[in-house]
Each structure stands twice: as C-alpha cells, then as structure tokens.
Amino acid sequence: MNDTKKIEIRNGVGSVKRTLPESRHVEGYAAVFNQWSEDLGGFREKIDPKAFEGVIARSDVFALLDHDRRRGILGRCKYGNEISLRLSVDDHGLRYEFDAPETELGNQLLACLQRGEIDASSFAFTVLDDKWERVGDEYQRTITQIDELFDVSPVYSPAYTQTECDLRGLDALKAEERAAEERAAAEQEKVALGKYLADLKAEINS
Q1: Predicted model pTM
Q2: Fewest Cβ atoms nearer than 10 Å: which of 14, 67, 68, 143?
C-alpha cells in the first residue's frame, strides 16, 4: 500500500464519442479493465475490475478537456452526486457521460468529436494499492485499488504513455530478486566449498 500518493494520468485507454451528430450528449470510457498498457518505461500495467469499488462516492470528479481545468469544465460529479457528469462502472471499465455545456469549451469539444480529432479518453487518479510481478523478462503492475479519481477527460493524444507513478513496488520487487540471486549464489558457493573439502579429505585419506 502507498503512503505518499502521486497523481497519475493514463491517456488513450478508453474511447469517447458524440452519441448523435445533432446531440450535445457525450459518452465514453475513461478506463478499461484488464487491458495491458504499452511499455510505460520498464513495465506494463492493467486495471483490476474491482479497482474502482467505492471510488466515485469518495471523489470530486470533473470532466475536463485534456485534463486542463484552466480552460473550464465540462461536467462534475461531486462525491457521487451527479451534478452534470454521470459516472458508472460496468464489466468493461469506468464509463462517463455528460451533456456538453453551451460554452466555448463545450462547442469546441463537440466540433472536435464531430471531425474525429478527438476519439480517446483519459483519467487522473491516485492509487491505494497495486501488485507487481515479473513474468518472463517483463515487469507487470496490476492496479487493484484506486484511491481517488480527479477527472475524466476527452483527449487529443491517443498515447498511453507519459506518466509518473509510485515505483516503490517495482523497486521492492527488484530488490527481492537481487536478494534471491545473492542467496542462490551464496548457496552455490557453500555447496562448491563443501564438495571441495570433501574431495580434499578423501584425497588426504587415500
């Protein structure tokens, strides 16, 4: 479990669309379960289907464009109260929907969706718990519990990369691997020394 939590952003993991050409209704998935990311700088990760349990009720979540609150907001769900943003979790992932406001930002989003310039979603969050393991030559992270959700965002960039996360779990796993290698090497040396002494004793007694 992480004591000091970093805000993490994952881009392009989900989709977003305008439901109908004449509608202001926007819907998408900010997060998708059990989908391995691309390489995030030495590891890949996926989100466990139970990772969002209880998160919506304890989070003040904004719908933003490209995670930029300075440009204004598209919707808000405050601790489960769906003011202008609806959040839900299903078998596929974290779903969101809202009616784009009649503002410059809302109109810009609708135009970009209509032209196909925006077709991906992202979310900003902190992690309460995760699991690290090594499979073959690859390190893998499974996010098992989200701590807090900050925003869901239609984004221009489809990349899943450019993220910072708490790597203490990965560092601990690597430290365990080094310690195991050192123990194995020490055991091999011990066995080799025992064999050498046994052979030497046998030679002396012959």
Answers
A1: 0.76
A2: 68
